[in-house]
Design goal:
GO terms for molecular function: nucleic acid binding. The protein is α+β, with helices and mostly antiparallel strands. The chain has five helices and two strands. A two-stranded parallel ribbon has the order 1-2. Strand 1, helix 1 and strand 2 form a beta-alpha-beta unit. Helix 2 packs across helix 3. The protein is elongated and about 50 Å long.
Amino acid sequence: MIRIGKKESKKAGALKVAEAAMTVRSSTEVLDWPGNSPDVNPIENLCSIVTRRVSKMGCSTKKKSIENVVKVWFRDDDIKNVCPKLGNPCRKV
């Protein structure tokens, strides 16, 4: 059996230990993996869109920040397009 592991581009202490353990086995190949890859996780992609939109709106208070997140979440066309593709996990958020 061939095992394929993934590693993020920024090496943390635990990652170095895991990488060393995986390379001991000759049948394990370690692949480079981007540190932040929202395209792999649609929820991360969704959060990234919300964060970008809200940061452009300017938030002077906590209340204003929350209002802006709600505006983006319920009224932004990109969010509306992503949510149906996610199914239940998105609706639960």
